[in-house]
Amino acid sequence: TVFEKNEKPGGMLQYGIPGFKLEKDVIDAEIDIIKAMGVEIRCGVEVGRDISLDELRAQGYKAFYLGIGASAGAAVSCPGDDKQGVFTGIDFLKAVNMGEKPEIGSRVAVIGAGNVAIDVARTAVRLGAEEVSIIYRRSRDEMPASHEEVVEAEEDGVKFRFLSNPVEIMGDGKVEALRVEIMELGEPDEKGRRKPEGTGRYEVIPVSAV
User: Fold this and answer.
1) 204: nearest Cα among 128, 125, 107, 121
2) Which of 13, 16, 109, 161 would bridge with 207, disulfide CB 3.0–4.6 Å?
3) pTM score
């Protein structure tokens, strides 16, 4: 038996990966095969909240595998990151995959340069944002996202702003602008990527969501 806290099984395949990359009927078909093999899936049940391991043992379960994942989103961690219009990438993608349409306006800044950031940016384009920019403190060469992902984002119209580090999200309750420090690359860090260093120069980018 699989106990799934969400309304549908599939985890990050279902709620994290955009539908334009992985169609939901493909996921559902794979899950149907698992069900046909005799696996029971109980959705809307969170182990530890709705039912305990002791209760499951009392029901006769002998072995347990906890596959809870690591689906917590990373905050921007700068002043103003609690304003309306600021989302973590994971929360944003989950909302869209659940059929919601977050209010992001016309100018969106996406902080980071991994594959999740690329997914967020391409999703924002599909939600109707007129200008979507990836904001990254290093250069293009240091981007952790795969080359194919970056090319596809460019084809979607996503812009890239390198050597820019967010220092403040500005606005009166709601996001209105992003203040960034212009960076330059120093010596390589322990992973071999050149370490970004602040220059003391700043720019303000008008945005409606971060």
Assistant:
1) 107
2) 109
3) 0.87
